[in-house]
Every structure is written in C-alpha cells, then in structure tokens.
Amino acid sequence: MAHSVSSAASPPGSGPTLDRVEDYFVGSFEAMASPCTVLVDGDDRDEAAALVEIAAREARRIEQKFSRYRTDNLIHAINHAAGRPVEVDEETAQLLNYAATCWELSGGLFDITSGVLRRVWKFDGGTHVPGKKAIEKCLAHVGWGRVTWQDRTLSMPVGMEIDLGGIGKEYAVDRTAGLLAAQTTKSFLVNFGGDLFAGGLRRGNRTWGVGIDDPTRTGQAALYRLDIARAGLATSGDARRCVQWRGKRLGHILNPKTGWPVAGAPRSVTVVAPTCLEAGTISTLAYLQGPGARAFLEQQNVQFWIL
Amino acid sequence: MQLEPEGASPTSASTATSTSALRERLSTAALALLLAPAAAMADSAATTQVDYTTLFYGEQSRTQVFEPIVRATRLFGDGQSISAQLGLDVITGASPSGALPSGNVQTMTTPSGRLVTIPAGGIPTTKFEDHRFGLDGEWQKPWGKLVTSTVGFHASREKDYQSLGLNAKLSAELMQKRLTVSVGGGYSDDSVFPTGGTPIGLSDGSEVSNHANAKRVSSVLFGVSRVMTRRWLLALDGTRTFENGYLTEPYKVISLTNPFNGEPTGDVLTDNRPSTRTRSSALLSSVYHLPHDIVYASYRYYWDTWGIRSNTVDLKYRYDLEDDWYLEPHVRFYHQTAADFFTVGLSSFLAPPEFATSDYRLGQLSTITIGTSFAFRFGDNPSLWTLRAEYIRQSGDSSPPSAVGEERNFNLSPTINTFTAVIGYSFNF
Predict the structure, then answer these.
(1) What's this model's pTM, rounded to 2 decimal places?
(2) Mean pLDDT by 10-residue block, N- to C-terminus, for chain B (429 residues)?
(3) HEC profile for B66-120?
(4) Which of A178, A294, A299 is the closest to B34 by Cβ?
(5) How far is B214 from chain A (nearest CA, A)?
(6) For chain B, which has fewer Cβ within 10 Å, the N-terminal or C-terminal residue?
C-alpha cells in the first residue's frame, strides 16, 4: 500500500530502456505512476530486452485493467454501476476474493472501498483536516461489508467505489515474475516502485543486493541493505504523502472505521515474504495496527524492518 | 545508519515452529490469486456505455439547429466493440440565397414557389425547415495483438437528401506499439431530390426536372501516429475524397447585375457547379501530456479541385481537476480561399460562364472559434456530464474584387456570430 497503483494522466506507452550495469542488464520504464526496473543477470542483451518488454507489457496491462483513474476499464464500470450488479472476469474475481480475505483477516481495517475518503483528505503536506461532517458523509459510502460479492458478481450501493491500488502493484510484481520465470532460467529482479520480487540466485551463487531508502530522505544513501535470492519485498508507510495536524504528522493510510489516518503507526514497515503480494499485504496490515505494528509482525514469522 | 532485520530470518523461516493462522490464510489466498491460470485472464466482462448529447446551434438571425444524439457502445472483454448511434437534426431558419442586396426593394421566389420581399440593402435569404434522421453503426475487432479492423455504415434521410454508406479501416501497431499505421476507405451513395424539382443550372429556374440526382462519394485515408517520447504523441493523417454527380446547391441563386452601376436587374440565375470534386487534406496533430494536464494542438491543410484552399489551427488545453472532472478551453482559427467559380453576381450583358456560385460558403471565409468544455458529476451520482459552449465568429470578404458599382456600397458578407452549446451525459452499465 506504499504507493497508488496508477496515475491520473498516464502518458502514451513508450518503450523501456536497457542499460548494462556490471554483469547484468537494467531495463527501466514507467508504469503505475512509479519508476519500474527489471534486472536480468547474464550477457545476452537480446534476451534481456525481450524479458524487459514482457515486464513492461504486463505492468501496463494490469495498470490499464485495474486503475481507478481510467474510464475504459471494468473498475470504472464497477464504480459507475449506480447500484446495478456487475459481473467480473476471472482475474478480477480472484483479486476481489483476495481483497475480501484481507478485509476479513484484518477485522475490516483493510478495505478496498476506503478510497472514497480521499475526496476529503488531501495528503499534500499541508494542514487542512476535513470536518467531522465531511468525514461522516464519506464513511456512509465505505465498508466492504455493505457490498454483495458472490457468483463473480459485485453489487455496491450507489456512491461506493473500489480501488485495488492497495494490492495492484504487488500483484503486478508477482505476475510479472511468473511470466519471466516461464521465459528464462536466468536470475532476475522485478522492482515496481520499491515493491519487488527476486527470482533466484545469480551466477556464482550471488544474491541480489537491495538498498532501502530512508523514507524521510528519498534518494539518499540506503538506510539498510539486504540480500535476497528468491523472495518478495514490500514497504508500507507514509513517507511522502501526509498532512500536519496539531503538530503531528498524519500519513496517507486511512482507517476505514474512523475515516482518519492511522495514528501511532511506524513511519514505514518493510516485509520480506515468499511473494511480493504477501509482503505487501502483511506490511499494510501491520501498518494498520498503528502502535501494535511490531507486535503484529512478531506473530507473522516474517523478516521485517520498522522505522 | 544500518538496521538489522527483526523477526525471523529467511533461513529460519522454513524451520519456524508455527505460522500464524492469519499468515496461513493469507498464503493460501495469495497462491489462489497468483496461480490462477493465465489463460482465464484474457477474457473480461462486457460493459455497455451510453452517451447522450444534445447540440444547440444558433447563427445570429439565421439558422438554428437542435440536434439530439444517442450512442450506445458495447465493449467486450476481448477488445471487440460494437456501437450504434441514432441522431436527429432539426434545422430551422434562413440562409443567404446567394442573391445580392439592392438599393431597392426586391421580390424573390422561394423553392416552394412563394414570393418574398427583401427590403432595400438587405441580404436575400431563403427560409427553410428540415429534419434529418441518421443511423450509424461501427464494429471494431482486434486480430491478434497488433492489428485492429473497423467497419461501419451510415444511413441518413432528410426532406431532399438521402445518404447510404460503408467504411472500413485497418490499423497495425509496429515498433513495440510506438508506431501505428492505419489505412481505410469509404463509399457513400447519395441522392438529392430538391423540393419543387431540380432546376437547370444557370437558368432562370423555371424549368425543372423531377427525377432524383445521384451523388457518389468515395474516400481513402492513410494515417501514421508515433509515440515520440513518454509524454508526446504525434500523428499525421491524409485523406482524399472523390465526389461525383450532382454537387450543385439547388436553392442558391446568383444575381444578374447591370455591369455599369452594379445594380441587380432583379433577375437571378440558378447555381451551377462542376459534377466532380476531389478534396484532399493533411492533418498534423500532437498530444502532449504534462504531469497533470494535456495539451492538444493540430494543423490542417485542405485543398480541392474547385480551387478552395484552407488552413485550420486548433488548440485545446485540458486541465484535469479532481477525479474525472476537467476543464478544457479551446480555440480554433480557420481561413479559406474562394472557389475558382465564386462570384458575387453575373453581368446581364454577357453569356454566363460554365460554372458559377454566389454561395458564401464557397467564398473567402475566416472563422474564429473560442469555447470551453467542462466535465463533472453531481455529487455521488456516477454519470458523467459534459457541457460545451462555443462562440464562432465568421467573416467573409465584405467587398470582394468581383463587386462593381453599387455593390461596393453594401457589406456583401456581414460577420456572422454563432453560438453552440452541447450538453452531454454518459453512463455505463
């Protein structure tokens, strides 16, 4: 949930670039409003270019299909169904099933219908906090529990919206990794805006070294470094988008029950798990616990970093 | 500062004593999602979009148009789409007949045989009222990942005109989808059957034939669009249209004038145009995405075998407000030269030329359009509304070189102010 899955005005798709760094290739492109890179171990430039192209296509396919900012996809149709039931395809159904499980496991804290609250909260670093009435008005349109989801058909009351941004990027990372693994035996690393999956040991039994930035000083020296061979990694936090209130800094992750940003949470939570999706979900669920983040993580049997 | 990880290390994870119930369920759910067969991913559910628009068009003390249109588009998961559009135009008002103003009161005959009186100095106009019904359909289908075909038809009918046509287009994406090339063509079989019969060209209009007049229009198009940078799309489109058959405007007339003083003799000749016309255009358009907003710019050059050349510059800027809300100001400049056979009047002393028209639309013309669009929703209602308002200022050559004598005293092409308003409403289900 570290970043939103899409951009408001995504530019026409342009081709990825490919660079040689040491003994691997780095493919770069922009998707889901994030810088994306794919590292491919080895010396075969053509193969690396082909793999990066596959990754860029998959990232854009998922962005196009699940972005809530587009008007030509199923998410738009769902969000503008005006109370009518909408039948969804298999992939969307699987994502909704996953989101429903997360909602249930988090006791309603992880909620893909909470995006409606962003109409009143502006996380631009300013000091504006919405009034009680405005929040209450939004909360009337929040709650997965009000949605009817069965037989691949979703019915939502008028005024409600879903936003798969909280899991979309992590899902795209794992889907892409799956496609790459089916194409090559080379080791690779998929990194979509900081959510990543490492696909195997590099030549000479080396791991991929990943540097995690200090969320308060993006782009400067890595705060911590880890070596991963085959695992997913994701970070949840309020690094850049926040609002100032009574001298406190409130991050952009909202509690769908109160309509307010989660209070007392760490600045950032990084988790390593077998897939990027699990890492992202666990880090988000931990963040949503607020001060209980650490206790939550300690029960999950995962490697994590808290700031 | 370097931090050590907390919790279980990846190596110890597999030998950990117990995994929480939450993690186990999450793992199961994640695997169910990630291992879902890729083949089942291709299809997505079909959706239908309905767009309804109404256009109001009003020329100052001339033509008024009321045009409701409803369009339904069915989008299928495999990229196919089918759309149908039903439109109605209700046109009322008056349009310049082509005859010249005079210092004296003039009497003219309308297409239906009625006599009308035009005050001294007034531009003679023809009153009319018409309804047009139109039906369009389009089917778009992708063939593999790179090629898309589009086929369509149109049918329309009004009191004195009928049009039936077909069109087709093929687009292919090349260079990793950075270049799109399109080729297409269309054919339309039209028929003109003027109210009161078809007058013989450049005659006094008293003799008419009562059969329908055929008009055939075929066209070809070629387009290339290229992604220049991540934010910039540039496109070049060329079209050529071949028209043949009855291309004359049956209700337009040309005044006969006394060559010495320019005064209309009171007699008029009917309009007469060549029976073929080849029209060509080249359009260069650019779309640039700023971080939030979008800038659209285009330039079009048009030329035809009747001697008309035109230049159009069009600029739009889309300010993205919240969600789907946007504001889009728009400005457009248009200029055309007159057709070779355009004349303000014909000398009553000379034999008429082969072709002649006084229709202001074939004369020298400039228009400036200024407008804006605004898209919004009412509260939580999911339907999108769009409003567009435009002001069009059209000016011709008020004292063209072919004007003689008294005609120089009149403004032969007064500036026309036009307002258009469009209300649009769209929803999905």
Answers:
(1) 0.61
(2) 50 45 88 70 62 89 88 82 93 84 72 67 80 94 89 95 96 86 97 91 88 96 90 93 95 88 86 96 93 90 97 94 82 96 90 92 94 83 84 86 75 86 86
(3) EEEEEEEEEECCCCCEEEEEEEEEEEEEEEECCCCCCCCCEEEECCCCCEEEECC
(4) A178
(5) 41
(6) N
